[in-house]
């Protein structure tokens, strides 16, 4: 997610909750436990972008998203943290902004010069149009927005197809090509075309129809697990229908990657039950080149997405055995 990475504040609070548990205190007698906090990285990234943008005055921060989104509670956590660090901060719905006399105004009166954008660009444009106050203010250099409009390129899942497709191999160095092969699953934009798979030429659509158990379909410009079709969980009719629909609405197809699983305890009806759960870890990258902290999700379902109801967020710690 290169547009609106979520959950750093949730992770910080979950880490605090876990630290307070009696079982964690017992665990710490045998292990050094270090959390991976994220809120301070968010603030530093915002301020760094603001100063590179040319900001000189102390910024007034607006956390920008629709008031009805389920992640609103995280905005409150960020607002409290930013204010604790001495920065004025509001949570603002895009519908509450005006752009007047070269100033971006929240509720018509409060000038904003730094936007922590959590709203999706596509939703902002679809609902409010290209003439929206925020879009005008950012394009006319009246407000700094993080992450900016250009992040949309990486938000689109077709960016992975650009990396993976053999037609683009000439764009990358040998080292880059090896990294792509090692870390990016085989990915193609769904189209009526021929391409290569494991060194052999294939007719893409018939091949995908025949090998549905090995692939997943994903809309290019969605989030929260929307529109994802897992071939190994779909019947043939649904899979073929999804392939046909992908010709009209841009989508990618990716080779299935086995997810690791580990046993985790759960409290079920008052008793502790241990289940194998799939997990994925999603590192946060700051300033484009520094990695710290991560979003970790656990799930009993193959679609590992919290928004889609297919997972739970848990804090992540670095541990070392005490000597």
Topology:
Elements: H1 8-19, H2 22-28, E1 31-35, H3 39-53, E2 61-64, H4 72-84, E3 89-92, E4 97-100, E5 103-106, E6 110-112, E7 114-117, H5 121-128, H6 133-139, E8 144-146, H7 152-155, H8 158-164, H9 174-183, E9 187-189, E10 194-197, E11 200-203, H10 204-210, E12 215-219, E13 229-230, H11 236-246, E14 251-255, E15 261-268, E16 271-286, E17 290-299, E18 312-314, E19 317-321
Parallel strand pairs: 2-3, 2-7, 7-8
Antiparallel strand pairs: 1-19, 4-5, 5-6, 9-14, 10-11, 12-13, 12-14, 15-16, 16-17, 17-18
User: Number of helix segments?
Assistant: 11
CATH topology of the largest domain: Rossmann fold
The helix/strand series, from N terminus to C terminus, equals HHEHEHEEEEEHHEHHHEEEHEEHEEEEEE
Low-pLDDT ranges: none
Tell me how many strands there are.
19
Shape: globular
Mean pLDDT: 93
**Approximately how much helix is present in the residues?**
25-40%
In spatial order, strands of the major sheet run 3-2-7-8
Distance between the amino and carboxyl termini: 39 Å
Cα Rg: 22 Å
| Structural class by SSE content | alpha+beta
Overall tally of domains: 3
What is the level 1 CATH name of the largest domain? Alpha Beta
CATH architect. name of the largest domain? 3-Layer(aba) Sandwich
- Our estimate of the beta-strand percent is 25-35%
What would you give as the CATH superfamily of the largest domain?
Glutathione synthase, substrate-binding domain superfamily, eukaryotic
Query: Can you summarize the main beta sheet?
Result: 4 strands, parallel
